[in-house]
Structures are given as C-alpha cells and as structure tokens.
Fold this sequence. Notes:
Blueprint (H helix, E strand, L loop, with lengths): L1 E6 L4 H9 L6 E7 L11 H4 L9 E2 L11 E4 L6 H11 L3 E3 L9 H7 L4 E4 L5 H16 L4 E8 L9 H13 L4 H4 E3 L13 E7 L5 E8 L4 E8 L3 H14 L5 E3 L1 H8 L3
Helix pairs in contact: 1-8, 5-6
The structure holds NADP nicotinamide-adenine-dinucleotide phosphate (NAP).
The site of NADP nicotinamide-adenine-dinucleotide phosphate has 27 residues, from helix 1.
Amino acid sequence: VIETVLVGATGRMGRSMLALLAEFPELTLVGAVASERSAALGRDSGELAGAGINGVPISHQLPPLLSRAQLVIDFSQAAAAAGHLAACVAARTPLLLGTTGLPRELGAPLAAAGERIPLLVAANTSLGVNLLLELVRTAATALPGFDVEIAETHHRHKVDAPSGTALALGRAAAEARGTTLEAHGVVRQAGQPGERRREEIGFAVMRGGDVAGEHNVRFLGAGESVELIHRASDRRIFARGALAAGRWLAGQAPGRYDMGSFIKSISVL
Ligand SMILES: NC(=O)c1ccc[n+]([C@@H]2O[C@H](COP(=O)([O-])OP(=O)(O)OC[C@H]3O[C@@H](n4cnc5c(N)ncnc54)[C@H](OP(=O)(O)O)[C@@H]3O)[C@@H](O)[C@H]2O)c1
C-alpha cells in the first residue's frame, strides 16, 4: 500500500485522478489538497470527483498530511510548486510534479531535491506520448539518413502551433541527431522555401473538430519510410499515466527521474 496525497485535487487533473484511483488498488488516498481560497475546502474529495464518498476531505495544508504519506502527486499551480517541493523534501516524501509553466528559479531547488527524495517532473504524463518520445529517439539514431517530418492534429480551439508535444518530439529527434530544433526545425508554409535541407525537422499542423491530439512522426528514406503515430482520444491519459508513474516512483531511491525513466523500467527499450 502506498499512502498518497493528491495536490490540486479539485482541478481537472485532480478530479480525473481521484476518479481513476479505483484502477490503482496499491494507492491509498490519505490527503487531497487545494489552495487556501478553494471553494471546496472541507468537502469530501471523492464525492467532489463524482467517484463516491472516500472520507478524505479537501484541505489546504500539505505538511501535516506528509507524516503518513509515501507519495505526493502535484497538478496544481506553478506558483505553488516551490512550497510543495520544500514540504516534500522536509518530510522525505517522493514527489511527482506534473504542474507546467514552472519558473526558471525552481531549477536549483529541483536539483537539490533530487538528491534527497525520488522526484519526477513531467509536463506530459501520457504513457503513449512518452513511449513515442523514446521510439523517436531510437528511430532517429537508427535511421540517420532518413528525413524527419512531424504532423500534428488538434481540436479547433487550440491556440498554439505546433503543439508542445510536437515540439518535444522534434527535440527528441534533434537531440538524437546531435542538433537542435532552433538550428533545424522548420514549420512548413506556402511559398517557395526551396529544396528540403538534409538536417531539417519539418512540422505540419492541422486544426479541426474535437481531436484530443494526434502526432505522426515520419522517417522518410530512399525507397522506404517508417511512421510512428500516437492518437489521444481521452484526456484521462495524463491522469492515468501520472498514477502509474507515481506508483513506480514511490519505490525508487532518491534521485531525479522523468517519464522516460519510468517507461524504460517497464519496457525493453
Ligand atoms: N503533466 C501533464 O501531463 C499535465 C496534463 C494536464 C495538465 N497539466 C498541468 O497541471 C496543472 C493543473 O492543471 P488542471 O487542468 O487540473 O488545472 P485546474 O483545473 O485549474 O486545477 C488547478 C488545481 O490546483 C489547485 N491549486 C491552485 N493553487 C493552489 C495552491 N497554492 N496550493 C494547492 N493547490 C492549488 C486548485 O485548487 P482550488 O482552485 O480549488 O483552490 C485546483 O485544484 C497545470 O499546470 C497544467 O498545465 C499537466
């Protein structure tokens, strides 16, 4: 049994994780945290998530919950991350930090924390996307002469392009080739851009409908090509991946981990 505290429990990710806890019998919820201004303070966290009463009320203080916790999973707010990190280090509690937009100043505290607790920071906790990242690294290395082109499709409401995941895939390919996206990433556009340069990593973007996210990484060679595709049909993939990675993290030695470390631990890559 891994006694677990969820931080950001009233949010989209928090409620999604609360609802999925039933799939993870090893994880026992012992705390559910929101901000001190939360409208849900004192309410039953399971009921709030539509998962049935679980007896764990929403509270706003993490430290008192840590005396009996073996895992903290935090999907809350970037500005609160430093405080949550310090509390976990003080209590020696493993932390999976899924909050995005972390401030640059958190770099040193995160590095120091990684010496004292198992710490996994991940901007994307989908198992499939993280496996795809590993596969892209492998393919980019194994197929050095092949052109890399990345296509992504998302719902019509997405405002940024290419997606953060597409850029992460491009970065993985670039790193495996000993280069950077800044040097060789290209978003394909109309006009006369001229012939493709060998090292280019090209991006194509489509928007429409309610597509949760599709990423297609193509390796195009002479006479053959390889395609790696990930399709997200449900945003719960992030919550499920976080719970799976958290369960693994709780059993690790202190250190700095990422989703790739977890994926490698369960696969033969
Ligand atoms: N890693 C991934 O794969 C992934 C996937 C999706 C989202 N995210 C990231 O996860 C974070 C949360 O996303 P979301 O969509 O769930 O956001 P959200 O719906 O806005 O929820 C934010 C949660 O954080 C809580 N919170 C805010 N300030 C807090 C504080 N000072 N201390 C403790 N809790 C606090 C909120 O509680 P109250 O408002 O009730 O106080 C709420 O429970 C974002 O950074 C998002 O980008 C990451």
